[in-house]
Specification:
This protein is of the alpha+beta class. 24% of the residues lie in helices and 31% in strands. It binds coenzyme A.
Length: 169
């Protein structure tokens, strides 16, 4: 029998509880104290730029994008990215990132930042931000602050603190 296919679709409002459980299982209560979490709490993620992966009706992964500013420049913060352990190493994480980036680009966004492992995210075009150029509002390892330019040179003249963009349209 062939494996059921995996679908990726925009997050729906009623996915929130299942995604919260996924985050709790993956990251535990420590997630609530993370700097990136506090930014996300400040602005709220965009459903139309956030995606879930499913097998049938079973949710097996999620990625979210949240509007931020780096200095005065508009950007999106990617995360959390989570795939349920039995379904890892099948390309689902990469597919979720690729879909979120494609949708953000299609909607005219130029920059996506995140806090994560460069060796993993480099596959989707993320690069380390030079230390001090974009500063998270709390403790993070600067080597894990990464940016992806959705249009060439979009990060060239950008610098400053990263903060939630509460007024993003
Ligand atoms: C990170 C995560 C989302 C990857 O999802 P996934 O669906 O397994 O990823 P993919 O199948 O697209 O990619 C798997 C590949 O990435 C590699 N990889 C996974 N996590 C990595 C990391 N932190 N650093 C470097 N490589 C990593 C795997 O070894 C695998 O390599 P291979 O293709 O050479 O075999 C998943 O492992 C997860 O949910 N982890 C816990 C939560 C987490 O750490 N999230 C990221 C921070 S928000």
């Amino acid at each position: 029998m062939s494996e059921p296919s995996i679908t990726i679709r925009p997050e729906a409002a009623d996915d929130a509880a299942a995604i919260e459980r996924l985050h709790e299982r993956t990251f535990g209560p420590g997630r609530l104290a993370k700097t990136a979490y506090r930014i996300r709490e400040g602005a709220g993620h965009r459903l139309e730029l956030s995606f879930t992966a499913r097998i049938g009706t079973l949710m097996i992964g999620s990625v979210r994008l949240t509007p931020v500013r780096i200095g005065t420049a508009k950007a999106l913060l990617l995360g959390p990215l989570t795939v349920e352990p039995p379904f890892r190493a099948r390309g689902i994480g990469q597919a979720l990132i690729a879909r979120a980036l494609a949708e953000a680009k299609a909607k005219g966004h130029q920059l996506v930042v995140l806090v994560g492992d460069e060796p993993y995210y480099a596959r989707n075009g993320f690069k380390r931000i030079p230390k001090g150029r974009a500063v998270m509002p709390g403790p993070v390892d600067p080597a894990r602050v990464l940016v992806c330019e959705l249009s060439a040179g979009a990060f060239a003249n950008v610098s400053g603190p990263i903060r939630p963009d509460r007024d993003a349209q």
